[in-house]
TrEMBL record:
Domain named Flagellar basal body rod protein N-terminal: residues: 5-35
Subunit structure, as described in the record: The basal body constitutes a major portion of the flagellar organelle and consists of five rings (E,L,P,S, and M) mounted on a central rod. The rod consists of about 26 subunits of FlgG in the distal portion, and FlgB, FlgC and FlgF are thought to build up the proximal portion of the rod with about 6 subunits each.
Location of this chain's protein in the cell: Bacterial flagellum basal body
Pfam families, alphabetized: Flg_bb_rod, Flg_bbr_C, LlgE_F_G_D1
Domain Flagellar hook protein FlgE/F/G-like D1: 81-147
Swiss-Prot/TrEMBL keywords: Bacterial flagellum, Cell projection, Cilium, Flagellum
Domain of life: Bacteria
Domain Flagellar basal-body/hook protein C-terminal, residue spans: 199-243
Phylogenetic classification of the source organism: Bacteria, Pseudomonadati, Pseudomonadota, Gammaproteobacteria, Alteromonadales
Ligase among keywords: no
InterPro entries hit by this protein: Flag_bb_rod_N (IPR001444), Flagellar_basal_body_rod_CS (IPR019776), Flagellar_FlgE/F/G (IPR020013), Flg_bb/hook_C_dom (IPR010930), FlgE/F/G-like (IPR037925), FlgF (IPR012836), LlgE_F_G-like_D1 (IPR053967)
Organism whose genome encodes this protein: Shewanella ulleungensis
Name of protein: Flagellar basal-body rod protein FlgF
Protein family: Belongs to the flagella basal body rod proteins family.
Length: 247
């Protein structure tokens, strides 16, 4: 009886974890460059005192869905969308290099180029700082940033930096707790000259809201089933206790 109850209890607990993943995906359905997390369940043996006769369910995330999201045209010169495979390099809060597909860029009062999460965008020589004041900015397909200083004539365009674009392979990437991706093996990915961006556009989230809603409903039904199994285990245990008293 305790085995029955243990399986039902662990199944309900892991169902809540799976629900949290789907809820997070759904909450980021409109987040630029967001990659949906995936979940899978498997049975695990519980080791402890005595024989390993207990089995419990465990929800784990095998990775993220790296499919490209829709390209949304914005018309902003500082918006870029990575075409095909590849990543933009940004600086994480701890100063390390991380990677994202969110390409809605801007610069602050000091000229520091940042993304929508205020993470500094990395260039070949570190964080990119634009020379202020600037009248016009444009980003080429290869990530080169060109500016026209304020007051300069229309034909004056100066290359000031190049966005670091990498493509280490999606199977080498993992998402961190801050939502940014990093190399599983650690370190920094090298610049890949074959990665291209589209200016004046951003990549939307690859989350399918309908799929996530259906998944949440299915998980909730599974949770209810596990709770019913726990109640059934309680009823069977009560009935067994009554029989022991009669005997």
């Amino acid at each position: 009886m305790d085995k029955f109850l243990y399986v039902a209890m662990s199944g309900a607990k892991q169902g809540m974890n799976a629900l949290a993943v789907s809820a997070n995906n759904l909450a980021n359905a409109n987040t630029d460059g967001f990659k949906a997390d995936m979940t899978q369940a498997r049975s695990m043996q519980a080791f402890g005192e005595g024989l390993p006769s207990r089995v419990f369910s465990m929800i784990e995330s095998p990775g993220s869905n790296f499919a490209s999201g829709p390209i949304v045209t914005t018309g902003r010169n500082l918006d870029v969308a990575v075409k095909g495979d590849g990543w933009l390099a940004v600086q994480a809060a701890d100063g390390s290099e991380a990677y994202t597909r969110a390409g809605s860029l801007k610069f602050d009062s000091t000229g520091l180029l940042v993304n929508s999460s205020n993470r500094p965008v990395m260039g070949d020589a570190g964080p990119i700082v634009l020379p202020l004041p600037i009248e016009h900015v444009e980003i080429a397909a290869n990530g080169i940033i060109s500016v026209r200083p304020q007051g300069a004539t229309a034909e004056v365009i100066e290359e000031v930096a190049r966005i670091k674009l990498v493509n280490p392979g999606n199977d080498q990437m993992m998402r961190g707790e801050d939502g940014l991706f990093r190399l599983m093996a650690g370190g920094n990915a090298p610049t890949d000259p074959n990665v291209a961006v589209e200016s004046g556009a951003v990549e939307g989230s690859n989350v399918n809201p309908v799929h996530e809603m259906v998944a949440m409903i299915e998980i909730q039904r599974q949770y209810e089933m596990q709770v019913k199994m726990m109640k059934n285990a309680e009823e069977i245990d009560r009935a067994s206790t009554s029989l022991m008293r009669i005997s």
